Amino acid sequence: xxxxxxxxxxxxxxxxxxxxxxxxxxxxxxxxxxxxxxxxxxxxxxxxxxxxxxxxxxxxxxxxxxxxxxxxxxxxxxxxxxxxxxxxxxxxxxxxxxxxxxxxxxxxxxxxxxxxxxxxxxxxxxxxxxxxxxxxxxxxxxxxxxxxxxxxxxxxxxxxxxxxxxxxxxxxxxxxxxxxxxxxxxxxxxxxxxxxxxxxxxxxxxxxxxxxxxxxxxxxxxxxxxxxxxxxxxxxxxxx
Length: 240
Fold this sequence. Notes:
The chain is α/β, with parallel strands linked by helices. The protein is built from seven helices and ten strands.
């Protein structure tokens, strides 16, 4: 199976071509260039490196969030267009699941990534065989709030804190206490397209793909535009 995977959740995006779940070529977003102009040439580069063309791609896998509103929109719109053009189905993959899957071991994994505005995108996962399974829901919150939720859920410690943003954990006021309880931090790669592709490959084998119409983003937090619009609408309603 030839699969093309994309991650445009933040500035550290990537594109990967996989064959039967094994990465063949990866291109990483290492410039300040907008995804609107970078993404299609990056896709062409991995296809060329892999010796295939778009018509050969059988499945698409895309990070559906959480992450940047603009980045997600561009990534999902691109995948929707390609999948519709070539009548392909899509694996929608959680970015936090990809981060948790990068952790090297442990039963409990707290996956988190910088969400800006003093917040983190985060979720607690439990390892079940070769899979990691979300416990509860993914969230966006100040890191201290997420830490408290992890403490309540797993009071005995032994949690692996998996993140590409290690500074969110190490050196913070709460980390010494968590470390004493047996927690550890693991800095995982921010280049997530290969892992997203591997998760997508598993979904494809299990028949858990979606069509273009069902593909949607998991923003968790509303975009600034939506927030402003809803606030303005609320003000006008109150004024009326």
